[in-house]
Amino acid sequence: MTGVSKKLLLIIIFAFFIRLISLNQSLWLDEAISSNAVKNYSYFDIITKFSPSDFHPPLYYLVLKTWTSVFGFSEISLRFPSIIFSLLTGYFVYLIGAKLKNKTIGLWSATFFLFNPLIIYYSQETRMYSLVVLLLTVALHSYLTNRPKLFCLFSFLSFLTFYGSVFFITAILIWQLSTRGLKKTFPFIWGILIAVILLFPLLKHQYLVSKTMVLAVPNWSLVLGKSNLKNLFMIPLKFAFGRISFYPKTIYYLVSGLWSLFIFIAALLFASKFLSLIFFFPLIAALLVSFSSPMLQYFRYLYLIPVLGLLLSQIPNKLIKVILVSGFLSLSLIYLFLPQYHREDWKSLSASLPPQSTVYMVPSFSDPIIYYRPDIIVKDINKIDNSVLKNITVIPYGFAIHGIDHKTKLSSLGFSQSSGSNYRELSKEFWQLLP
């Protein structure tokens, strides 16, 4: 084993072990949706029944169903595939860096990727984002090694995992077309073309469902990510600083903003035209598309962080690279070891509920309760009345998105809030009918 191989192996092993820290933290809403979907639907039903009501293609759910059929549905089991995907991505980032420059650059590229705080966060999440990062990184490697069939295969798989893949694949095809001409571009387009044709009926249906949600739910567009300066600014900020946040917000934005500025100035000073194109084109395209169909949320563009790692590895000053990696690792460890930065604590909230009790909430947001406490009865807060109930438990999660003013509604029915409990990013309220 060469010296470089040993270093790469040590980096990957270390990256693996830090991903085990706090892996059993509570699932949040979207993770619980993923778990309940693969638990309650067959392979065929995931495609025909679940996916039409979801907003993503079905491949990740099919992979997760296969995994959970063997390893079960614990938090650790559900999240472990994302760990594997992220570590494999780190290996391919190394190969790309080595291909573009040399093995040393490959090591730096892999290190910047594997310890990026946002990547650490999403490598512990039961969602499709780590898988699509892997698939697109392998597609990029296939392109750089001139393997059009493999490029088409992984382009195809990436679109079956996440629709936003099309922006990244398009950027690569634009480069190929501008540098090699139309004839040499044709062998690279079939994967994404077949994927779009295959999934077009599903995509069209999901798009219509999304439009219906925007009309039916007052603030649903906030969930999707509108085209505005705040959402655009959050992309480089989260890419550099990760998911941690703190008060006062002015200090948070100042510190995270300066760190992000340092990261991106350092990255872009030595950026090649190719890497610049495949990094910025997806963001510009997404910004333009989001004016009509909002999708400008930073986590939808995680597949650009391998490119960011490649850009940072080009910095000639080793001390600066050490500082950047140390910053990434420090931010990652702050998230991993401090519970206040972890996901919504549905686990503790669910454990606090009495056996077979009833809660009132938005039913479409109840998947975490169903995951942790299937004995709990969930009822629609919009259908509550005072004809029978004297005491009720309310979980006001998602009420702002749905435009629900539950306090005014319950007060008008003669209820008064008697007490409440707070959990991480969640609350539980007890209301009592006045005599």
Structure description:
The chain has two domains: 3-341, no CATH class; 346-433. It is built from 22 helices and five strands. It has helices spanning 3-19, 29-40, 43-50, 59-71, 75-100, 103-114, 117-122, 129-144, 148-161, 165-180, 182-185, 190-216, 220-224, 229-241, 249-268, 273-289, 305-313, 318-337, 346-351, 367-372, 399-402, 406-412; strands spanning 358-361, 377-380, 391-394, 415-423, 426-433. It has a five-stranded mixed β-sheet with strand order 2-1-3-5-4. A hairpin with a 2-residue loop joins β4 and β5. α5 (75-100) runs antiparallel to α6 and α14 (229-241) packs across α15. The mean pLDDT is 94.
Order of helical and strand elements: HHHHHHHHHHHHHHHHHHHEHEEHHEE
- Number of helical elements: 22
Helix/strand class: alpha/beta
Number of strands: 5
Radius of gyration: 23 Å
Largest sheet: 5 strands, mixed
How helical, in percent, are the residues? 55-70%
N→C terminal distance:
78 Å
Proportion of beta-strand residues: 5-15%
Strands in their spatial order, largest beta sheet: 2-1-3-5-4
Overall pLDDT metric: 94
Taking pLDDT < 50 over at least 5 consecutive residues as the criterion, the unreliable ranges are none
State the oligomer: single chain
Number of domains: 2
CA-based shape: globular
Helix and strand topology:
Layout: H1 3-19, H2 29-40, H3 43-50, H4 59-71, H5 75-100, H6 103-114, H7 117-122, H8 129-144, H9 148-161, H10 165-180, H11 182-185, H12 190-216, H13 220-224, H14 229-241, H15 249-268, H16 273-289, H17 305-313, H18 318-337, H19 346-351, E1 358-361, H20 367-372, E2 377-380, E3 391-394, H21 399-402, H22 406-412, E4 415-423, E5 426-433
Parallel strand pairs: 1-2, 1-3
Antiparallel strand pairs: 3-5, 4-5
Helix pairs in contact: 1-5, 1-6, 2-4, 5-6, 5-8, 5-17, 6-17, 8-9, 8-10, 9-12, 10-16, 14-15, 15-17, 16-17
